[in-house]
Amino acid sequence: MSGTPEKQPGRLVPWRWPIDPDVLELSLACVPDWVPSEYREFFDSYNSFDFEYGEWLYPEIPPGVPLSIQSILSSVREEAEAFGDDPDAWFPVAFIGDDEYVVYHRNDDGSVEFGRYRFWDRQYLDGPYPSMAEWMRTYGVEL
Fold it and tell me: Is residue 105 one of the residues assigned to a domain?
């Protein structure tokens, strides 16, 4: 792990109203099978995670809108490919800015790691962690 920078506490944001299961299914249809179930299960109770400097990608944003899961996934795939990485080995959960995201990454051995990654530097700025839940703990939040 490249270290854990000082962080302001994060906050889990519950749904204000129930999400239509069809909308949730459509929004999460692009999630690769290798992404751990913790990600999909997150949306059983929560809409997003508020944390310093980042914009959580939540399923209420329709595909095609710039901060939708699908649009940011497309951007991450382009970034990965541009820097010589396998575009199918990355999945974003939050957008930080420029070429920086909070992502799941599938390693060559099939293991999955999680953290804040900058493609330009080809390194984690926070992480990698073994899971999204472990990363959230560094913000003082238990998932």
Answer: yes
Nearest C-alpha neighbor of 30 from the set 70, 64, 78: 70
Torsion sign over Cα 28, 80, 113, 118: negative
User: In terms of residue numbers, what domain contains 16?
Assistant: 11-137
Backbone angles phi, psi at 122, to 5 degrees: 55, 45
Determine, yes or no, domain membership for 117: yes
Taking the chain (143 residues) in consecutive chunks of 10 residues, what is each chunk's mean pLDDT?
72 89 90 97 93 90 87 95 95 93 97 96 95 96 89
Q: For the chain, how many structural domains are there in total?
A: 1
Distance CA 47, CA 19 (A): 9
DSSP string over 5-60: ------EEEE-SSPPPHHHHHHHHTTS-TTS-HHHHHHHHHEEEEE-TT-EE--TT
Environment class of residue 140 by beta-carbon count within 10 Å: exposed (0-12), middle (13-18) or buried (19+)? exposed
Of 94, 95, 93, 132, nearest in space to 112 by CA = 132
Place of tokens 């914009």: 55
